[in-house]
Design brief:
EC 3.5.4.2; alpha/beta; binds adenine; 8 strands; binds zinc ion; eight-stranded parallel sheet; globular; TIM Barrel; metal-binding; zinc ion binding
Length: 313
């Protein structure tokens, strides 16, 4: 089934095997002796327990070639899942704070995207995410650094630890990003309350909401999302692994669909959460009983929710 993946952190596609290969190439030492022990550490209790390991493993990403290798591995994998379009997140602040120039990050990701599109693989766009726990001033400084690369970006997003960092704090930087011609999206309602989803819509003016699952707690919000056809980029396996949801069988995606919300299915950080995008669709079929027609609607929603439609091939 052709589909788009619209919620994918490229750093979250770092498989342990590649992490160790890059560590060796760059002379970086990981805290784990081998791939099995690193994999065993993927037992998360919440978002922050995951983010700590996710940020730690980024230490192995140093050069343009590393980012190219990372994105190439993901794009090859996504192609096998029927993905024709990817809008991938990356975390510029994490890389800049480690002394890795933005040009290396963006250059590597763009090179992988160009080869993928040229060889009939997924077409890829880049979304730079601000780390909300570092605050709006740091986000504004990051946007200044991103400005010279704006032509290489599709948009900006907002990620990292959610609770205590409401979207409204980032109103100015999101408005400035739009001034640079960038699309805007934001994580909201993953661990944070429905109020954060309202703020992402009404204060940030985002075009899509990432996760948004806690919207099911607020009927007026469900009505608003459905009326506006605002896409939600839902990540079922991620929600279970980070204990936002108990099991796929009780995932709020069923309620979202019943309310007429424009839902899409995505993998978030597939190397860490036990499945790529097709695994998320298959889990919904196997454990929540979604039928083929519903999966086809979800795939069609994803293609329609792309920020820039891919050029005709
Ligand atoms: N699921 C997630 N939520 C917030 N920030 C993230 N960064 C990578 N994955 C994330
Ligand atoms: Zn995410």
């Amino acid at each position: 089934m052709p589909k788009a993946e619209l919620h994918l952190h490229i750093e979250g596609t770092l498989e342990p095997e590649l992490a160790f290969a890059l560590a060796a190439r760059n002379g970086v030492t990981l805290r784990y002796p081998d791939t099995e022990s690193l994999r065993r550490a993927y037992a998360f209790s919440d978002l922050s327990s995951f983010l700590a390991l996710y940020y730690e493993c980024m230490a192995v990403l140093r050069t343009e070639r590393d980012f190219d290798d990372l994105a190439t591995a993901y794009l090859d994998r996504a192609r096998a899942d029927g993905v024709t379009r990817v809008e991938m997140f990356f975390d510029p602040q994490m890389h800049m704070s480690r002394g890795v120039p933005l040009s290396e990050v963006i250059g590597g990701l763009r090179a992988a995207a160009a080869r993928s599109a040229a060889s009939g693989g997924p077409q890829a766009g880049l979304i730079a995410c601000f780390l909300r726990d570092l605050g709006p001033a740091a986000a504004a400084a990051t946007l200044d650094a991103l400005a010279e690369h704006a032509g290489d970006l599709l948009g900006v997003g907002l990620d990292s630890a959610e609770v205590g960092y409401p979207p409204g704090d980032f109103a100015r930087v999101f408005s400035d990003a739009r001034g640079l011609g960038l699309h805007t999206v934001a994580h909201a309602g993953e661990e944070g309350p429905p109020e954060y989803v309202w703020e992402a819509l009404d204060v940030l003016g985002v075009e899509r909401v990432d996760h948004g699952i806690r919207s099911v707690e607020d009927p007026a919000l469900l009505w608003r999302l459905a009326a506006d056809r605002t896409p939600l980029t839902v990540c079922p396996l991620s929600n279970v692994r980070l204990r936002c949801v108990e099991a796929i069988a009780s995932h709020p995606i069923a309620t979202l669909l019943e309310a007429g919300v424009n839902v899409t299915v995505n993998s978030d950080d597939p190397a860490y959460f036990g499945g790529y995008v097709a695994d998320n669709y298959l889990a919904l079929a196997a454990e929540l009983g979604l039928g083929h027609d519903t999966l086809a609607v979800l795939a069609a929603n994803s293609l329609a929710a792309c920020l820039d439609h891919p050029p005709a091939r």
